[in-house]
Amino acid sequence: EYDWVALFSHDYHPLYSVLIAFAHSLLDSSVSWANTAVASSVLSSGICILALYVFLRFEFGITAALFGVLLFVIQQRSIDYFSDVLSEGVYATFFIGALFCISRSLSTSKKRWFFGVGVISGLAYLVRPEGLGPVAILGILMTWEFVRRRVSGRDFFLRVGILAGSALLVASPYVFSVWKVTGEIVPVSYTH
Known about the structure:
Helix content is 78%, strand content 0%. The protein is mainly alpha-helical and 192 residues long. Helix 6 runs antiparallel to helix 7 and helix 7 (111-127) packs parallel to helix 9. The longest helix has 30 residues, at 153-182. It has helices spanning 4-9, 15-26, 33-60, 62-74, 76-82, 88-108, 111-127, 133-147, 153-182.
């Protein structure tokens, strides 16, 4: 039997741990949990670099993409964080994905991109609490456009509803589970 109160009282968000557990289930049982975590971090960091390249190439062209990725991979903090057993690679991949969707939602106004920002930000939130940042950013930008009368009330409420609803769809099971077990709502708590 699990100690659910102790589990959900910890402020570490669950997705990174779940991904490590999933990766460990795919590997030979002789591979340690620590080695699985290292492999997961390295793999997610590689995916993050690929996501950054795709985003920069789509938005700014191949030269900017290559230069941006080069600067990213040689930057000392990137080397320290992305080569250790940390959630940085997973979180940054989702964050970059959400930024790409923000860019597309602002340039095309298509609802699927607002949905994408919400879903990907919800996944980023399940890794780290600041993962909901892209939802807040796009919400603020949309509010600014509404105040400036560049977006109709109907479009504003529809798009912001899709944005917030899709983020809640992904993040709320975790928030509800924590609340059910501990009595606390922890939408963005982070103390370590």
